[in-house]
Design goal:
Blueprint (H helix, E strand, L loop, with lengths): L2 H11 L3 E6 L4 E4 L1 H7 L3 H4 L14 H14 L1 E9 L5 E12 L5 E10 L4 H12 L9 H18 L2 E10 L2 H7 L1 H17 L6 E6 L2 E9 L5 H13 L2 E3 L2 E3 L2 E9 L6 H17 L5 E3 L2 H22 L3 E10 L4 E13 L3 E3 L5 H4 L3 H23 L6 E4 L2 H4 L4 H11 L8 E6 H6 L1 H14 L2 E7 L6 H6 L4 E4 L1 H6 L4 H16 L3 E5 L4 H9 L4 E3 L12 H7 L17 H19 L16 H14 L3 H4 L1 H16 L1 H5 L1 H30 L2
Parallel strand pairs: 11-12, 14-16, 16-17, 17-18, 18-19, 19-20, 20-21
Antiparallel strand pairs: 1-2, 1-5, 3-4, 4-5, 6-8, 6-11, 7-8, 9-10, 13-14, 13-21, 14-15
Helix pairs in contact: 7-8, 15-17, 23-28, 26-28
The protein binds ligand C2E and magnesium ion (2 copies).
One magnesium ion (MG) binds next to strand 18.
Length: 683
């Protein structure tokens, strides 16, 4: 056989793997056994440095020693841990020889590999590697989980507790960045040492990778027992580290979870401890946070509910119901409020209280509000096609109102429904919403008003609005909260609150509507207090949109309401008090009881004067009792003015003689006002 063929046949039939490299350690030939051993074909191997087989287990010093022997003695023999192409570890017994050329200079290296993976010593080594962290020699995640599982079983059996402490170093990255990975590794080894020292033999310290460690305290009798150990861990780890002649301060953030309080499997326990560690970081590092299983359950439940609501939106499970709003005095329907419902496939029709609190302040709330809006506008279009034009109120949450682009979004929606007059849309905002961030709310509200829509303050009286705030809010309507309306017939304080809100609305020239009007009798009382508009079960419950047109057609005023009303928009008691006060002040002045002339506003700017010109004439101009008011009112102010002129002061007796005239005019004016009220109350 010629030598070349002999060599080729030798290579092919040798059971040991053979690798031949050139002097630069580049593979020039491998045999079939090599491919079988490593999983790499000849073409995959040729041209590469055999380094690609390394499993990352041996240190750089190990390889330096290997090369030293090769260069000095011409060969090296030993064991190498390599990685098969499929990822598993293989142990090889290897002999590498340098092959010199004719001049004695190394031209090739030949390596002979035989597989010893299954020998007992290498098995032990491989196992050590599989279950330990190469850098620190600590158990790795696999071994930790294994021990954790046993610890859980033992805790169950012996009725004890265990703590999983997840550690992440604070300030480790600068060490790595400043001094390089080798220094970082050195620090990690020091950390591992410290951890080992301050735990017991029976505890497990594991490294999960990077700068993350887990300490498993496996036999606690009660929860508090782990505290001293954790404090010790924190303080031991916080002592300065000397690396490369420099001192570094590194601390640890620790998350702790306790089994069986947190009754989960090993994997989940580690994850929970990790979550708590994250909270420790957020809370300022160098501390520990105990995982709160209850809170986590609630959080998870909430997340689930949120995604169920979101899915419901996508699946068109939400509905809009509408509740009519009426003018009790005139007996007409003035609009309806859109109220959202969830037609849940299993739980049936759910009211907002079942789902809105869950999404309060969440982006999903904004999504829902948007849906309500577009749905309401589409419904208005549908009704219009059936010949029903109705003003609609829509509830808007704080989150939505505070979206920077809300006014623009609203403008787009309105543009898509050109047949709906923006004036027929009223946005209901909660008193608290409007006042939380007044400046921002004001801006958004004003921009929306520019578009033509109006605003109402919902649930009025339950918030904490000061009058100053209230005056600055450009809302056109106050909705008296249903809690006051509901009990006004049995609770005089509630009755007073309703009355005060009605007066407040009148004073600030806002419309007022009562919500929660549960019976017709409530309606009669509201009318007497000067509140003409109402919404509530006493009129109609919220209904699906199909039902509304018929309801509107058949709505009639309840006989109790036609019993009459107070004078709309006129705070009668205030008018009386105001004028009587002026009379008394003029009296005091003329009798010398007060040195300065009192201020009496003129007839156009006093409360009655303003009402008379604006609402009074429009509404009651045709009534005889109304027509007698103006001359009396004029006479009152004229007389008051005359009595305070300098002339009157010079002739006090003459002025005093006319004082009874002022009293009489005032009495007549008030009497006439009450007559008007009576006229209105008797149909
Ligand atoms: P709200 O805006 O004050 O609406 C009035 C609530 O009172 C409605 O409850 C209505 O059904 C109920 N109601 C009306 N008349 C009576 C009555 O005579 N007696 C009683 N006991 N209750 C009456 P609902 O529909 O359960 O809504 C509750 C709240 O949920 C609403 O209070 C509003 O704040 C919010 N909401 C409802 N729909 C929406 C919506 O589409 N978007 C937003 N953001 N919030 C909404
Ligand atoms: Mg409302
Ligand atoms: Mg309300």
């Amino acid at each position: 056989m010629d030598p070349q063929r002999l060599i080729t046949s030798l290579l092919a039939h040798t059971h040991e793997g053979i690798v031949i490299t050139d002097a630069g350690a580049m593979i020039v030939e491998v045999n079939r056994a090599f491919s079988e051993l490593t999983g790499y074909s000849r073409t995959e191997a040729i041209g590469r440095n055999p380094r690609f087989l390394q499993a990352g287990h041996h240190s750089p010093e190990f390889y330096a020693h290997l090369w030293g022997a090769l260069l000095e003695q011409g060969y090296w023999r030993g064991e190498l841990l390599n990685r098969h192409k499929d990822g598993r570890m293989i142990a090889d017994r290897v002999t590498i020889s340098a092959v010199p050329d004719d001049n004695g200079v190394t031209a090739y290296y030949v390596g002979l590999f035989s597989d010893i993976t299954h020998s007992s010593e290498s098995r032990r080594q491989l196992q050590q590697m599989a279950y330990h962290d190469a850098l620190t020699g600590l158990p790795n995640r696999l071994l930790l989980l294994d021990r954790l599982q046993s610890a859980i079983a033992r805790a169950d059996r012996e009725n004890i507790m265990l703590a999983v402490c997840y550690l992440d170093l604070d300030g480790f990255k600068p060490v790595n960045d400043l001094l390089g990975h080798a220094a970082g590794d050195q620090l990690l080894i020091m950390v591992a040492e410290r951890l080992r020292h301050c735990t017991r033999e029976s505890d497990t310290v594991a490294r999960l990778g990077g700068d993350e460690f887990v300490v498993l305290l496996s036999s606690l009798n009660q929860a508090e027992e782990c505290e001293p150990t954790i404090h010790r861990l924190l303080s031991v780890l916080a002592a300065p580290y000397r690396v490369h002649e420099q001192s570094f301060d590194v601390t640890a953030s620790i998350g702790v979870t306790l089994y069986p309080l947190d009754g989960c499997d090993a994997d989940t326990l580690v994850r929970h401890a990790d979550q708590a560690m994250y909270l420790a970081k957020q809370a300022g590092r160098n501390r520990y946070v105990l995982f709160d299983a209850d809170q986590d359950r609630q959080l998870r439940a909430r997340r689930q509910q949120l995604s169920r609501i979101e899915a419901g939106l996508t699946a068109h499970e939400f509905r809009l119901y509408f509740q009519p709003k009426v003018d009790l005095y005139r007996g007409v329907v003035i609009g309806a409020e859109a109220l959202v419902r969830w037609q849940h496939p299993e739980q049936g029709l759910l009211p907002p209280s079942e789902f809105l609190p869950l999404i309060e302040g969440h982006l999903l709330m904004v999504k829902l509000d948007h849906w309500v809006f577009t749905e309401a506008l589409e419904q208005m279009d549908r009704w219009q096609a059936q010949g029903l034009s109705l003003a609609i109120s829509i509830n808007v949450s704080a989150a939505t109102l505070q979206q920077a682009n809300f006014p623009d979004w609203l403008a787009e929606q309105l543009a898509e429904h050109p047949h709906i007059p923006p004036q027929s849309i009223e946005l209901e905002i909660l008193e608290t919403t409007a006042l939380d961030d007044l400046q921002r709310a004001l801006q958004a509200i004003e921009q929306c008003i520019q578009l033509g829509v109006g605003f109402a303050l919902d649930d009025f009286g339950t918030g904490y609005s000061s009058l100053t705030y209230f005056r600055r809010l450009p809302v056109r309507t106050l909705k008296i909260d249903q809690s006051f309306v509901r009990d006004m017939l049995i609770d005089t304080e509630d009755m007073t609150i309703v009355e005060v809100v009605v007066n407040l609305a009148q004073t600030f020239q806002r419309a007022v509507i009562a919500e929660g009007m549960e019976t017709a009798l409530h309606g009669a009382a509201l009318l007497r207090l000067g509140c003409h508009c109402a919404q509530g079960y006493g009129i109609a419950r919220p209904m699906p949109p199909e039902a509304l047109p018929d309801w509107v057609k058949t709505f009639t005023r309840h006989p109790l309401w036609s019993a009459g009303a107070a004078i709309e928009g006129l705070p009668l008691l205030n008018v009386e008090a105001e004028h009587r006060t002026w009379v008394r002040q003029v009296d005091d002045f003329l009798h010398g009881a007060c040195p300065q002339a009192p201020f009496v506003s003129d007839e156009q700017t006093c409360r009655f004067g303003r009402w008379y010109i604006q609402q009074g004439l429009l509404r009651y101009g045709h009534l005889a009792a109304f027509q007698t008011l103006e001359p009396l009112h004029h006479q009152f102010h004229e007389l008051a003015r005359e009595l305070m002129e300098p002339q009157a002061r010079m002739d006090v007796d003459a002025a005093l003689a006319r004082l009874p005239e002022l009293y009489t005019t005032c009495d007549l004016l008030i009497e006439q006002l009450y007559r008007l009220q009576r006229e209105l109350l008797t149909p």
